[in-house]
Design a protein that fits this description.
heterodimer, A: about 150 residues, alpha/beta, Rossmann fold, B: about 290 residues, mainly alpha, 11 helices, about 75% helix, binds iron/sulfur cluster
Chain lengths: ~150, ~290
């Protein structure tokens, strides 16, 4: 069995969000929701992270950072887009300076809707991401076996 | 004087040292969570973390980093092996120091600004705590007439009273050794801050797992050092006292904000001078 599920370390980045979703995300760490009981740790270091949580509608400035962070994360990894902004641009959709959605710049695995996304929804999204993460790890293993045989 | 009993202890340390260390780390995280009125992760969470890290890719910045990390782990194990063999305490301390330097080298080798700051600060911390650590074997030598751990364990029950100043100093530097707040300058448990992760910023996957396993050994070694003060009282008294003092560090961790390196250095040296040196000078009078 895979231990990825038991110890997901998340990296959080606010790509031009209004910070509403970020506050909800941080609420997951508070005593009320306490995601650490599932082994989830909020790490600020992409090289230690398994799950990339991104909020906001992404503009040119934050695009570079998002891409850089994603590239620095070791495989297997998953991306979770949080909030209406991260899904489609949200209320900033018509603004001339935003890309309108994380999936415009990164491959997104899980979409968590809401403006702001509720902590329960975010935890739910992370749980779904875990299933994808495990699937990805399994695929890698079989691929490696194929290569070596 | 190495008997088969001490060999069993030493080999037992090789195998069960990391297990005990991981449990200590798990209890630590659990206690921290309870102090913040959270439930906290399962007891074996540190083990899950390390097993997961072995499943992840390892980003190699320079091949040297893995070599240095093996050096870190190797000398850490050697240090504990000497200690549990009942051999020379001073030698064990030197191995512990070498191991710490290897960790700094690994961080320097990766060349990221964050790990560079981390290892500079780690070296600064070493400068702060090393005098006090040296004083511990010296104190033991003055009361037990030997640097050998087996002689210290067989010492007089009141040696801890004679060494009370040194014990206070040791507890102070234990906070630094365990990387607890207010002295978590070089690598904090919480990554989202100015330092990112300090020393371990650029280490990932199995490399980071090596660091974690090294820290498990270190936990066991430090607990053993603490135990040594009370060892002549017998295991029934010594182990609970050592454990209580060990976990008192968690309380300190949760109630203090981080200090700057200057105040850390000044504070540690003041405590070393006030308690450690005074104790050493008075020892010939009371022993
Ligand atoms: S989805 Fe709503 S709350 Fe979240 S960042 Fe966008 S505007 Fe703010």
């Amino acid at each position: 069995m895979s231990f990825l599920k038991k110890s997901p370390w998340v990296l959080h980045y606010a790509a031009t969000s209004c910070n509403g979703c970020d506050i909800e995300l941080l609420a997951c760490l508070t005593p009320l929701y306490d995601v650490e009981r599932f082994g989830i740790v909020n790490t600020g270091n992409p090289k230690h992270a398994d799950i990339f949580l991104v909020t906001g509608s992404v503009n040119e400035e934050s695009r570079k950072v998002v891409e850089n962070l994603y590239a620095q994360m070791p495989d297997p990894k998953v991306v979770v887009a949080i909030g209406a902004c991260a899904l489609s641009g949200g209320i900033f959709r018509d603004a001339y300076n935003v890309y309108g959605g994380i999936d415009q710049v990164l491959p997104v695995d899980v979409y968590v809707p809401g403006c702001a996304a509720r902590p329960e929804a975010i935890i739910d999204g992370v749980v779904r991401a875990l299933a994808i993460l495990e699937e990805r790890a399994r695929e890698r293993k079989t691929q490696r076996k194929l290569v070596t045989s | 004087m190495t008997t088969s009993y001490s060999w069993t202890l030493a080999v037992g340390f090789l195998v069960f040292g990391p297990v005990l260390g991981a449990l200590l780390a798990g209890i630590d995280r659990r206690l921290t969570a309870r102090m913040q009125s959270r439930r906290g992760p399962p007891l074996l969470q540190p083990v899950y973390d390390v097993l997961k890290l072995f499943e992840k890719d390892t980003l190699v910045v320079t091949r040297l980093q893995t070599l240095y990390l093996w050096g870190f782990l190797f000398f850490m194990v050697i240090s504990g092996f000497i200690l549990f063999l009942g051999s020379d305490l001073l030698l064990s301390l030197f191995a512990l120091t070498v191991s710490g330097i290897f960790l700094c080298l690994a961080a320097y080798a990766t060349n990221s600004p964050y790990s560079n700051i981390g290892s500079s600060r780690e070296l600064m911390l070493m400068m702060a705590y090393e005098p006090m650590l040296i004083m511990v074997p010296l104190g033991f030598f003055l009361v037990a007439d030997s640097f050998r751990v087996s002689d210290i364990v067989a010492g007089e029950p009141w040696q801890v009273l004679q060494l009370s100043g040194i014990l206070i100093g040791f507890l102070f530097v234990l906070t630094i050794k365990l990387r607890k707040s207010p002295f978590d300058l070089s690598s904090s448990h919480h990554g989202h801050q100015e330092l990112v992760k300090g020393i371990t910023t650029d280490l990932s996957g199995s490399d980071l797992a090596l660091v974690e396993i090294g820290h498990w050994y270190e936990n066991t070694i430090l607990l053993a050092w603490l135990y040594l003060f009370f060892a002549p009282l017998g295991v029934v008294w010594a182990l609970p006292i050592a454990l209580v003092l060990f976990f008192a560090e968690v309380l300190i961790d949760n109630t203090h904000a981080r200090l700057t390196w200057t105040s850390t250095l000044k504070g540690t040296w003041s405590v070393t001078a006030l308690f450690g040196v005074t104790n050493l000078m008075l020892l010939p009078l009371i022993a």
